[in-house]
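Example complex used in Figure S2.
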Amino acid sequence: MLSDYLPIVLLAGVVAVFAVASLAVSSMLRPSRPTPAKLMPYECGIVPERDPRGERFPVKFYVVAMLFIVFDIETIFLFPWALTFRELGLFGLIEMAVFIGLVFVAYAYVRMKGGLDWNVRGLREGPSPVAEPPPVDRRREVAGAR
Amino acid sequence: MIAQISPPELDFLPVAPELVLAGGGMAIMLAEAALPRVTSRVLLIASLLIVAGAAGITVALWGWDGEPTVLAGMVATDRFAVLIRGVLLAVAAIGAVYGHHQFDRAGERRPEFFPLLLFATTGMTLIAAASDLILTFLALEILSLSLYVLAGFSRRVTASEASMKYFLLGAFSSAFFLYGVALAYGATGTTSIGGIARALSGPSEGLPLAMVAAALLAVGFSFKVAAVPFHMWTPDVYQGAPTAVVGFMSAATKVAAFAALIRVFNVAFLPLSWDWTPIVGVLAAVTMVVGSLLAIAQTDVKRMLAYSSIAHAGFILTGVMAANQEGIASATFYLVAYALMIVGAFGVVLLVSGDERTSLSSYAGLAVRSPLLAALLSLFLLSLAGIPPTAGFMAKVSVFRAAVDAGHTWVVIVAVLASVVAAFFYLRVIVLVYMKEPEEELQPDRSPLPALTVAVPAVATLVLGVFPGLVFGLLETASIFRW
Amino acid sequence: MVAAAETAVNGEAGTTALAWIVTVLPLVSFFLIVLFGKRLPGGGAWIGIVAVGAGLVMSLVVLSHFIGGGEATELSEDWFRVGDLRFELGQYVDGLTAVMLVVVTTVSLCVQVYSLGYMRGDARFTWFYAVISLFTGSMLNVVIANNLLQLLVGWELMGVCSYLLIGHWWEEKENSDSAIKAFITTRIGDVPFLFGIFVLIVATGTANIPEITGAIGGGAISRGLLTAGALLLFGGAIGKSAQFPLHVWLPDAMAGPTPVSALIHAATMVAAGVYLVGRMFSVFVNADPWVLTFVAAIGATTMLIAALLAMIQDDIKRVLAYSTVSQLAYMVAGLSLGPAGYTAGLFHLFTHAFFKALLFLGSGSVIHAVHSNNMSEMGGLRRPMPVTFWTFLIGSAALSGIPPLAGFWSKDEIISTAFHEQHYIVWGIALVTAVITAFYMARAVLLTFFGEYRGHGHPHESPATITGPLVVLAGLSVVVGFLNATAFDVTLFSEWVHFGEGEHLPFNYGFAAISVVGALAGIAVGYRLYARWRERDPLRRLGPAYTLLERKYFLDDVYLRGVVRPIQYRASAAVNWSNRFILDGIVHTFAWTARQFSRLVEVVDRRVVDRGVNTAAGLTGFTGGILRYIQSGNVQRYAVFLFVGVILLAIGISIRA
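Predicted assembly (1286 residues):
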């Protein structure tokens, strides 16, 4: 029975060896002469204006992404249920209602917290669990405001 | 396939505590969102009521005489699950008070703390009762996700860092766990814990695969209980996360994860115990030694307690490796004792180190500033060190004896040595507290409610140290798994 | 042994059932004092005194059970069960137990009354009484325990109490250091003790002491296991009873208040080690014979080196401390003589408790008056402090073995038994030690009470709460010896405490004469050297030998550098500590490997993992470096280690499979 897995193990081995070997070989063979210009991030040939690591995105994007995933998965669950609706009968209906109810609670919570309110700057109640931590330099100001 | 799906027999009473916790958590979440003016105190009272409700049902479940498992074999109804639930709910109540106090004192508004705490508790109580690896995994994720968020519940950057580390490594270990579940299914054709035991006790060609599955599951659990070498996150997270949260998670997570570990290894993989006990023994030995040695070098009280918590995971594993009823009972007693003393110790830290200034040197002369807190801290440290007449001593003695009786003398030798080393660093703190003059301005928090809350585990630690029979009496039936 | 099986319990509990109440009383008073002490008049001290006084009365009742030759009794309850494992809570009362109950309660009572005066006005007066009560209860628990685990509870609690009391005046760093030293040193002895308990449990399947002795008597236990068990238990006794090489903590423990020294570090806790050997004697007797020889060697070594050290101390309490170590070694040596020496050794334990407590309390009275521990600042105190002087003199004479005081009877019995059992080396050393003992006690008395007063102020006799206990203990030091005065055919004590047939040697006037002459010789030399005060101790003429003694054979230095300091100071502690314990050669090899390894790690780290990060390798050493490297805070690295852990686990499994 275990021998059935042998090809997978072999494949995994080959993959690992190949990946490691090609990196190792190329690092050994290639010349390494770094210059400042070479070490710069590549931005279509022009000199990059900002340090890309310092770039921040509004929290709203994250919230939108996560909400999308939540409701997307909800829909995915609805499809198989729809297919077996008759076999599951009343039980399935109740279970699905519970499931949708749970997601609805989340929706209501986000709604009430202003998570879907695009015009407000961030969520209403300070840094929520889903929000990023406030940057270091603004810390004192936020704390002082309270 | 589809046509074969049939609704299972439904008996929701055995999961009623979880339903109450989860439902209550959602209710609090919505209520707070709808009524933004509601105070933290109201939320605290509501949470405590919910926990009390769940506890009431739990007590009632002690006398359950129905099926050993319900909900299509997913949930065990044995008394082990009931006992562990009780411990977890008690810790959750204490944690709720801690959290309320810490955020209230800092002037922060953190209404989400309470629902998240309740959700985490739901996951924990569920994992203690889970009799199917799928449910174990689900519960593991429920508790983990809540804890990841809770760990970052502070404005301090270190808290975010702690949360992030915990999340990344936790996700990593969850993957191993899930892989273990898959392999267990591959080896035995079932994910039910009882089913695996049945499949493995007969002749089976899946034994090597099952061993690998057991190892991967062990990785997942070891991460949660902070056993070496899967402990790396512990000091960083304990130091970074808010003390109230650490107090809760250090006690409750370990209890829950160990409960699941004990169930999985003493039921599902019991037929293989001959093979896994030496490995668990090595894990235990390494964990005790590394935890104890590293604790000596710490200069931060939260980090020190983190390493101490790691070392204790090793001691509990020593009981687990006995792989018999004595082992289960003594390990469970150890869990109870450990939960009491660590939640208490962090409670004192919460009160002494406002502002999260947790360097050990700031504890110098605590006895002068606050004799009560100093006495409580010393009691918990003595218990952690395993000195009578505290619960920690009884726990160590019973675990050692169970392991010796099961023939694992060498682990006990390591354990005794580790516990002697460990005594030194607990002693160091007591010396600081009692025998040094206060150096810097130390203003312990004198609020009555949390001090009262800390007194509860303190009294329990003493009582269990003198009358361990109170818990061992329950364990006579609670250390038997029904499946 | 046959006797072991016979002691297995059969008697009616009768009055011995009081024994556990004696134990519980001080524990209750501990809680009462902690809870209410501060609010009560007198700081709650009376609670402790009444409790232990009642305990003393009951102990005497318990002892009366044995006067008519009562049987040993046992009471036992299940404390708790873990599956099939039983943990008991019970009492086992035989003559030895009853005698010890009386000793502990008597000394504790005297000390508590004494402390009313001595500790008056202390900032932590109430706390002091609370801990003394807890300590007394713990010791009594050790005495009555009918199983090893219960004994262990008391044993450990005593360690904690001792630590708290030594550090009672923690404002001075030296005192808290001494407390830590005592705790750690005895803890080191506890390690073998714990293992010894496990060995016996494994060997006999029970922790119950009568059952263990019964099983051994039945001959079912292999000699090898017994030998291991005996050695390990003796390790515990070495730590608790301050025997070589773990004797270093006791003199430093004198940092505590003097009543504490009297109770804990003279009469009771340090006696627990000897008591343990006595209680588990059948293990020792039935082990390989060389175990007892080893015990004898330790005893003989300790008694001599400690007595030599006592000769040169200036601090009066240290004289007594080394004397205690030396006398404890007498008891150990007595026990090492086998069944014949059993009664002698424990009789010395019994008598010594009284006169050593007396001496300590007397020295406390002196210290109280002159505000110094140093004998160079005393002198001539016999006139202002007559009561203290006379009681101290009685105690010294008893310790020196002057007939008919208590020490004479017990010491003489050990010495003559040693000769009778043909342990001539023990006999010789014991005799020499007896001479030295008489010498240093003569020195102490002369320096303290004779000559001119050399200190400050005008010393006065201490109040009645202090002198009262002194008088009582002095009286006891005179009479208790007659409990086993073989010269007059009184053998009461050997009827209570005996092993096997309880045969005892007839009194031998020849040996007694040798002992007495030796003691007198010691006193004479002492008088010759110290009758007149000299700035420079005459013993300094010994030259290098004096230096050796002054530096306590350099043992303290070894321990301090090797054990105490690394623990006390943080970081790399564990590493240093374990290094020191390994022999030199191994250390060097280890260090070399460590260096190579950390170099390797450094190379790997710098070249491969991260050029920019300066790793911790090459810092304090092998372990510290590696561990710090691992705990870098870098989450990616953590993940790598998690994966490494999985791989190690996988390897482990494939080895099994």
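Chain B has a mean pLDDT of 88. The interface with chain A takes residues 2-3, 5, 7, 26, 29-30, 33-34, 36, 107-109, 111-112, 116, 149, 152-153, 155, 157, 159-160, 205-206, 208-209 of chain B (CB under 8 Å).
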